[in-house]
Amino acid sequence: MAAAAAAAAAAAEHAAEEGTLSIYKAARRIKRRESTLYNALRSVADDAAFVAEIAALWPALPLVANLRCGLWYAQPRSLAATCYFKSTDGHAGNWGFSTARLNLHLALLAGERGGCIIVDSTRKGKRFPDSMAKTIPIWCCVLNRAIQRHRLQAINQGSGLKSEMSAVASNGDAEEYSGSSNWDSSVHLPVWVLETEKNAIEGRIEEWTDLFESCGADIHSLALGLRKPLRPLWISQNTRIWLNEVPDHQLWDFTPIILISASASGTVATQRTSSEFSWRYIPGAGDDEESWARGLTPTLFWKHSYDLLDGGPDLCNQLVADIVEKDRVYRAQRGEHSPQVIVKHAKCSSHGLEPYTGDHTIITQPMNSNPSTIAPANTQYSNGGHVVFWIGTSNLAVASTMQVADGLADMDCILNCDSTSRLPSSSSEDSYLELPIVGSKDERFSLLKNLPKAVSFAKKNLIAGRKMLLCCQNGEDISICVALAIITRLFSDTGCFDCGESFMRRDITKLEMRKRLVFICKYAINARPSRGNLRQVYGFLCNEKEQLPC
Which of 13, 136, 205, 231 has the fewest CB atoms below 10 angstroms from its CB? Predict the structure, then answer.
């Protein structure tokens, strides 16, 4: 009796608490219940169908995914490349042009193919994410302005730039290279951007162009590769396109950067019905994949999309768990990095299941089916299709430990910066070094503490003329920063190994570091170094400079 009375009292207390549930908490519970894994995947598939329809209108233009959300909205075989434009560079009052995310490979690809199509999405109820509304238009304008300056300077100096352009162009296109008088370098923003914001952005274009020119980017190659100025165009699910009047992109007097916002604009989920299942549509479902994907990647999703969608909401979670685990075991058997994905069990409440939370490891797979369309000449593909980026003629290469397990034959030595995996190696200590470096969010000075060993190891092997591989878990951040430290510390301004002699003679500034980062990004087009790790590289170089004898 006492136990029953206690249970009744607890139930009454719980009911009282539920009765005072705030509107905010109630809305959060409803949103969480609607944001199921099946709803997210079904929403992604619906939006991807829209993207495919738009891409089919201009089949000659390559489809590009803006990382990371854009990867979900196109099948891997249809993607020609990826790019990285952040919405934070387009937030009101915080506009910027990032020299760490130049995306020059995208401009060259657009110049080669006559334009490109970029896909992205957003959860925030906007029609377009800020990366498309402002970041990419700013990028287009800055590149156009820099090319215009470069051409005018070449004309004034009487250099051979015009003859080079005519040689690159076909006879019919040679006129497009003739001069800068018709070169549009103005800012093109969508009509919904306020006039005050547009004026503020226009007022900073010259400043950003100066920054772009000072960072050491190869503007000459851009001037040769782009026949017409870049210009963004916006397409969403609200855009009306008459199929019998689709314009030919070759007839435009600009190089189109067509921006597709994959999701329907809306702030709340809407109910939709297929032939078998009812589900809730989630705008921008591909965003923030760590919070919902349970270890599923875009590549795995599209490989098993029919099974996942046809299985329905009840079987979706279990199917995803099976797919992720089978992929992990497959990669582990091949010696690749394969951490186990852990998902905490959902908690029950009187309102139903609370959402799961868990730790997820997102694994980026090589996306392009035709590597030659996007990769620079220094990119090497192993037998397994894994990507290794050689940094010019420096004998340094960067890659992901997840991708190089079967592609190490051409490497003389390896610097493994991945704290979670060990590469298969029978080499001696002189040719293999493992440094357990973690990101700046996990440990503030992890990279800084390990850079002296990394540079010393690189110096010893580069003196011996060995080819060296730098790798980290994703090949985009830590390995790039280690390469930046090595190239700044041991290489000259022209990219030649000089054992650090030029480092002794020059001052270390953020501008100098930025130039070398641009040099690396020219070859390692997937580079995405974090700000915290770049700060540690700068701190290391300053310490090295202070320790040099006067």
Answer: 13
| Separation in Å, CA 450 to CA 10, 200, 266, 445 | 55, 43, 47, 9
| Residue 328 confidence (pLDDT) | 85
Cβ contact 433:454 at 8 Å: yes
DSSP state of 82: E
Pair of tokens at residue 171: 């006879």
Q: Is the pLDDT of residue 470 over 60?
A: yes
* Helix (H) or strand (E) segment spanning residue 398: strand 396-400
**Residue that wins the pLDDT comparison between 425 and 417:** 417
Confidence band for 473, pLDDT divided at 50, 70 and 90:
confident
* CB-neighbour burial class of residue 184 (10 A; exposed 0-12, middle 13-18, buried 19+): middle
Give the burial class of 198: count Cβ atoms within 10 A of its Cβ; 0-12 exposed, 13-18 middle, 19 or more buried: middle
Tokens of 315: 């079987």
Coil, helix or strand at residue 116: strand
C-alpha separations of 383 from 330, 410, 476 in Å? 17, 12, 21
Edge-first strand order for the sheet with 396-400 is 379-381, 387-390, 396-400, 468-472, 413-416, 432-434
3-class DSSP assignment, residue 470: strand
At 381 the pLDDT is: 42
Percentage of the residues of the chain whose pLDDT score is greater than 90: 48
- Rounded average pLDDT over 255-279: 80
Q: What is the rounded CA–CA span in Å between residue 533 and residue 285?
A: 30
pLDDT band of 383, cuts 50, 70, 90: very low
Residue type, 405: A
Cα distances from 379 to residues 317, 373, 432, in angstroms, run 38, 11, 22
Most confidently modeled of 98-107, 252-261, 416-425, 518-527?
252-261
End-to-end CA distance of the chain: 87
pTM of the complete model: 0.78
Of the candidates 136, 116, 107, the one whose C-alpha atom is nearest the C-alpha of residue 221 is: 107
Res. 290 pLDDT band, cuts 50 70 90: confident
Q: Is the per-residue pLDDT at 30 higher than 60?
A: no
Other CB atoms closer than 10 Å to residue 494's CB: what's the count?
7
Tokens of 507: 């001052």
CB 356 within 8 A of CB 343: yes
Cβ partners under 8 Å of residue 502, min gap 6: 491, 492, 493
